[in-house]
Amino acid sequence: MKIHTGKEKWNRAAALYVRMQVFVMERSIPLKEEFDTEDHDETIYVVIYDGEKPVATGRYKQIDSDTVRPGRIAVLKEYRKKGLGESVVKELEDLGREQGCTTSVIHSELSATGFYEKLGYTKVSDIYYEDGAPCVTLKKSL
């Protein structure tokens, strides 16, 4: 397994492939909701590869000078429970730290809240809906 962080077109394609498999095909999230204006040529993606196959991803977004918002964390079904999601989140947090961020904020579906809490995140919102799914916002000091 190798991790690559970058905005190259090939790495973006790999990230979108994983998200297509997980969010669109598996979770039935509509294409127009999954792939939004945050997916552009300057977007940085973390992708974990098993050989040449992309198997996990996350999207980097810095929302202000102090805050990073890791998003679109996805792991192919057959690669789950191997720590890849945690590796993606940590890479995104590290990139945020390198950019001077001191806080990480994640919008999490309720089903993934426990995963983020194990990584040191704390719920800071009531339940709301994104893409038809119940979500909460979680925060962590970097």
Please give a structural write-up.
- By secondary structure, this protein is α+β, with helices and mostly antiparallel strands.
- The protein contains four helices and ten strands.
- The strands form two sheets. Strands 4, 5, 7, 8, 9 and 10 form a six-stranded mixed sheet that branches. Strands 1-2-3-6 form a four-stranded antiparallel sheet, with helices on both faces.
- A hairpin with a 2-residue loop joins β4 and β5.
- The chain starts with a strand and ends with a strand.
- The mean pLDDT is 95.
List the SSEs and their pairings.
Elements: E1 2-6, H1 9-26, H2 31-34, E2 44-50, E3 53-60, E4 62-64, E5 67-68, E6 71-75, H3 84-98, E7 103-109, H4 113-118, E8 122-123, E9 128-130, E10 133-141
Parallel strand pairs: 5-7
Antiparallel strand pairs: 1-2, 2-3, 3-6, 4-5, 7-10, 8-10, 9-10
How large is the share of residues in beta strands?
35-45%
The geometry reads as globular
CATH superfamily: Gcn5-related N-acetyltransferase (GNAT)
Distance between the termini: 26 Å
CATH architecture annotation name: 3-Layer(aba) Sandwich
- Which CATH first-tier class would you pick? Alpha Beta
Radius of gyration: 14 Å
Tell me roughly what share of residues is in helical segments: 25-40%
Mean model confidence by pLDDT: 95
- Secondary-structure-based class equals alpha+beta
Number of domains: 1
CATH topology: Aminopeptidase
Order of helices and strands: EHHEEEEEHEHEEE
Task: Specify the number of helices.
Answer: 4
* Poorly predicted regions: none
